[in-house]
Amino acid sequence: MGLDIIIPAYNAKDTLFYTLSSIAVQRGLEKVDLHVTIVNDCSEYSYSSFIDYFSPYMNIQEIVTEKNVGPGEARNLGLKSTKQEYIIFIDSDDCFYSSYSIKKLYDEIQKHDYDLVISDFILERDNKREIKNNNLVWLHGKIYRRSFLKKYDIHFNNSRANEDNGFNRLILLMNPKRKFLPVTTYVYRENSSSITRKDDRLYRLTGLEGYIYNMNWAAEEALKRNCEQKEVVILAMNVLIHMYYYYMELYNKYDVTPILKWSHTILELYRRFPNLSVSEGTIRFFLELREKEYIKDKIDFSRVLTFSEFLSKVGEAND
């Protein structure tokens, strides 16, 4: 069976060579039918010179969108234009961690008949590195089985933020056979000095609307595919708990009224299944789990709001 590597690229000529080089040096794939697809998302130029340079080392093609559609839709085009049974996504400014990264992912999913394999990846920011493990949000360090995606018609939506979170969440709601692989395979290179990252708290606030949209989208799409309703209820409660802590964290610096309005959609989703509500004990467990993350990050909340009070505010937000 073969493997497709899909790379959405928008004006990426300064970083794409680095990404493709990390694919060209991969080892142990002599018997794998590996195809690389660059999805040119209406960049200001062609990537034909990259195709010419790397063609001796890999089966590589470029396809071009008719207009700029964003990374999610670019990946959808990549999915529609390829056919191998296994799929890896990599961004045009990232790279694989070692020369055996792809082999480790491919061997694990192919030999053990998984639908999804999730490995560790490195977050590289300002010359500092942090290992991320068991991450269910981003596409980094993951390999997917195409037949599972086709079975449930799983694709990206057309949002331009958090679309990877929506995609992965929809997959998880359909209960894939999955495996956490405790090895590092991917390096995510983040530029924290970019305009969107100069104020990380503001970035978080502006990104929360996209997060809510994608979680609600994934839940609604999963329900159309007859997923377990209980899984949607648990997801909704987890999202509300996340928004609760974001509300408290950002309260003293920004207008957090939008958080209440955005969360209202998720509260309505949760209330749709009153016979499947999450128990108080489980809610406390989720709250304590989330609170440990904030203790680790040494965030001091100068204003305390109970979770019940937060839910009341959310319920009143659209009244």
Give a written overview of the molecule.
45% of the residues lie in helices and 19% in strands. By secondary structure, the chain is an alpha/beta fold. The protein folds into 2 domains: 2-190, Alpha-Beta Complex (Spore Coat Polysaccharide Biosynthesis Protein SpsA, Chain A), CATH 3.90.550.10; 200-317, no CATH class. Strands 1, 2, 3, 4, 5, 6, 7, 8 and 9 form a 9-stranded mixed beta sheet that branches. Helix 7 packs antiparallel against helix 8 (229-250), helix 8 (229-250) packs antiparallel against helix 9 and helix 8 packs across helix 10. The longest helix is centred in the middle third of the chain and has 25 residues, at 200-224. The radius of gyration is 21 Å and the shape is globular.
Q: Give the SSE string.
A: EHEHEHEEHEEEHHEHHHHH
Percentage of residues in helical conformation: 40-55%
CATH superfamily assignment of the largest domain?
A: Spore Coat Polysaccharide Biosynthesis Protein SpsA, Chain A
Taking all residues together, what is the mean pLDDT? 92
Query: How is the CATH topology of the largest domain named?
Result: Spore Coat Polysaccharide Biosynthesis Protein SpsA, Chain A
- The CATH class of the largest domain, by name, is Alpha Beta
User: Which range does the strand content fall in?
Assistant: 15-25%
**Shape category:** globular
Rounded to the nearest angstrom, the distance between the terminal CA atoms is 54 Å
How many beta-strand segments?
9
Calculate Rg over CA atoms.
21 Å
Helix-strand makeup class: alpha/beta
* CATH architectural category of the largest domain: Alpha-Beta Complex
Q: How many individual domains? A: 2
